[in-house]
Amino acid sequence: MTSFSTDAPVLVTGATGYVAGWLVKELLDAGITVHAAVRDPDRKDKVAHLQEIAAGSPGTLRFFRADLLEEGSYAEAMAGCAIVFHTASPFTTSVKDPQRELVEPAVKGTRSVLETATRTASVKRVVVTSSCAAIYTDAVDCLKAPGGKLTEEVWNTTASLEYQPYSFSKTLAEQEAWKIARAQDRFELVTVNPSLVIGPALNARPTSESFNIVRQMGDGTMKRGAPKLGLGVVDVRDLARAHMEAGFREEAEGRHIISGHDTNILELGKALIEKYGDRYPVPRQSLPKWIVWLVGPIVGGISRKFVTNNVDVKWRADNAKSKRALGVTYRPMKTSMEEMFQQMIDTGVFGK
User: Fold this and answer.
1) Which partner from 102, 191, 210, 332 sits 20 to 30 angstroms from 260, CA to CA?
2) What tens digit of pLDDT does each residue of 125-184 get?
3) What pLDDT was estimated at residue 91?
4) pLDDT at 194 over 80
5) HEC readout, the chain
6) pLDDT tens for residues 51-98?
7) Rg of the chain taking only CA atoms, in angstroms
8) How far is CA 160 from CA 51, 58, 137, 157, 298, in A?
9) What domains can you pick out in the chain, each with its CATH number?
10) Catalytic residue (choose from 108, 124, 144, 170)
C-alpha cells in the first residue's frame, strides 16, 4: 500500500464527474486537501455529494470555478498544488458537432490545464485521465495489435472526426498532453487509460455513457438479446485507486491500461441474471450480428462499419502494467454490475 503525502493540496479537474467523485473520496479519506475545479460551484445538485463526503472525512475540500474552454481559468485552483489530476473531458457518443462538442473541449482543456501546470512552480506531477479509446477504435484493432492484445505502446490510428469522434478526441487530447509534457521539465506526466467504466456513482444523477448502456439492460430495450460487442470494463472504484497510485507512486511513469475484464455487452447483461433476472428484462441471449447490422443504423444510430468491426469480435487488452507498476487489483465484474444496477433501481431509473 502506497502512503500518500498529505502535505500539499492536489487539484482535481472536472471534480463532479463519475470517476472524479470516487477519486475525490479517496483523496479526502487519505486526509489530503483537495482543490475541486468545477464549472459552477454554486450548483448544489452538482456538488452536494462531494460536500457530504468531505464532511465525514479527514481531508479538506475547496471548490474553484474553472472552465475547460477558458484559458488560464485553472491558475487559481492549481496554485500551491503538488499533483494535478485532470479528469475533465466530455464522454458522450450522441453529438451533432463532434469538433465543437468533443474535440475542442478535450484538446483545448488538456492544453489549458497542462500549460497552466508548466507555469505553476508547486506542480510536480500531472495525471491525465485518458482512455483506451486513445489506444483503439474498434475491437477488430485488437487483432492487429502485437500478440492480439492492446498494450500501452499502441496508439489509435483508425478514429476520425467522421468515424468514432469520441475516440478521436481522446487520442488528440492525450497526444497534446505528451507534446506539452516533453517540452518542459517542471512536472512529470502519467496517464491512465481506462476501458468502459462501470460500477455505482457517488452522484445520484450520473451522466456517463455507461449508464445509458446499463439502463437498456433493465428497461426492456435488450430483452430480446444483446450484441456480443467486444469491449473492456473497469470498476470506477478500481480506476479511482489507479489514479491515486499514478499520482503518488514516485516510480509511476507513462501510460497505463486500466481494465479489469475483457468482455462484451451480452456478458455484462448476463452478469445481472442471477440477482435481477426474475424482475427485470435483462438480456440472456446473443443478438445475431446480421440483425444488429440491419437495424443498428435505424434504431440506435450505430453505423454498419462499427457493427462489422465490434460485434462478435473479441476485445483483448494487457493490464499487466497497471498491476505491476500501480499495484491495481480488479474486483469481479458481476459485483460492479450488480451494484451499479441496484443503484439505478434505487434512484428510480426503471420507474419501479
Assistant:
1) 102
2) 999 999 999 999 999 999 999 999 999 999 999 999 999 999 999 999 999 999 999 999
3) 64
4) yes
5) CCCCCCCCCEEEECCCCHHHHHHHHHHHHCCCEEEEEECCCCCHHHHHHHHHHHHCCCCEEEEEECCCCCCCCCHHHHCCCCEEEECCCCCCCCCCCHHHHHHHHHHHHHHHHHHHHHCCCCCCEEEEECCHHHCCCCCHHHHHCHHHCECCCCCCCCCCCCCCHHHHHHHHHHHHHHHHHHCCCCCEEEEEEECEEECCCCCCCCCCHHHHHHHHHHCCCCCCCECCEEEEEEEHHHHHHHHHHHHHCCCCCEEEEECCEEEEHHHHHHCCHHHHCCCCCCCCCECCHHHHHHHHHHHHCCCHHHHHHHECCCCCECCHHHHHHHCCCCCCHHHHHHHHHHHHHHCCCCCC
6) 999 999 999 999 999 988 888 999 999 999 999 999 987 666 677 899
7) 20
8) 39, 45, 9, 8, 22
9) 10-345 (3.40.50.720)
10) 170
Residues in the chain: 352
